[in-house]
Amino acid sequence: MRHDLQRSSMEAPAILTDHILPEPCRGATQPAFATVAEAFAENFRRRGENGAALCVYHRGAKVVDLWGGERDPRDASPWLENTLVCGFSTSKGVAAVAVALAVARGHLAYDAPVARYWPEFGARGKGEITVRELLGHLAGLSHLDRRLNLTTIGRPTLLARRLARQRPIWHPGRHWGYHAMTWGFYVDEVMRRVTPGARSTGRFFADEIAGPLGLDYHIGLPDPIPDARIARIELPGRVQVLRGLPRLPRALVPKVINPFSRLQRSLRVVRGFNVNDPAWLKAEVSSANGVGEVRALARLYSVLACGGNELGLGAEVMAELTAPAAIPSGGNRDIVMGVDSRWHLGFAKSSPDFPFGTGDTAFGMPGMGGAFAFADPDRELGYAYVPRRLGIVPFDEPRETAVREAVYQCLPTR
Questions:
Q1: Residue 145 CB neighbour total at 10 angstroms
Q2: Residue 282: DSSP 8-state
Q3: DSSP state, residue 264
Q4: Assigned domain for 9 exists
Q5: 194-238 pLDDT per residue, tens
Q6: pTM of the model
């Protein structure tokens, strides 16, 4: 099915393919990327996909814009061009862009202690933790002694007091340890402390990034957006999880199985919520519940892949984002997930357990169950894929890997 690719005034004209996409897929590609559409359709035929979207920008132009399957299996409603979907931890990358813009504008510095901006944070051994360490999952705050609920999340002053009282779980700065949920709460309070108007990460992103770039993406879903636009997430069942365990990195398996592991505790920071509950999606949880069009993620990373000029990030901040991750003294191993990781300023970097991009300059964030969005400045590529049905592999999920590999096979040789 032929569909005109929408573009901003900054994008190069898109030349569309004439090929017919098989049901249930929609959208279009530029001719050079036609095999990406085939890989996307193959996910529905062979890899159990039942609802997803994929968008790719190359050198500032949209070259792939695909979607398909069901938005909601309860009534078989189709995934439409303007369907919004939660990409879980891909939200961290969006929030990290907001922090980068705050740094570029002089509101805070990566190497300053968090306590400079939030004095109460310095309690209980946290006084030397820097913004860089907090963003890079080095703060030792992957879970909380007392779990949160949606009421507490909606009361920033109360939440900040709770967060400030937490003692680090390991020596800050020594080890990477994925802060699955807490990352967003801590970053959010820092942003409130430093931005003009005491804006949260979600509000700052909406005002300074989503608005100027025309992105339909939200950290904290606004009331005017109807539920009928939101893709309904399908979580893996117990049998699915058990069958999928052999595909996980070996060191990650005990972390998944043990309900008292650091990983499980990091995922259970908030009690009593459902990922499809409108109340959860309306809360601001920049570590986990950003909702938007997949093309908004690709467009955002395209701006970064092409130098960040549209956002005014500046050469100094872009050099920070594209720099290699600095290995902590405790080594490469993430002591929450048990895998070799590379965390850097709120983003993932390519690592032996999760290689992506064409070099150290690439950065982005995967999301639970198969979502992934990233920038590859070496190839001027912005990429995003988000499914509705979650797999159990935390990164390099087979559906996502298949389309990403197809994208790179279509890129022109340099």
A1: 9
A2: H
A3: H
A4: no
A5: 999 999 999 999 999 999 999 999 999 999 999 999 999 999 877
A6: 0.94
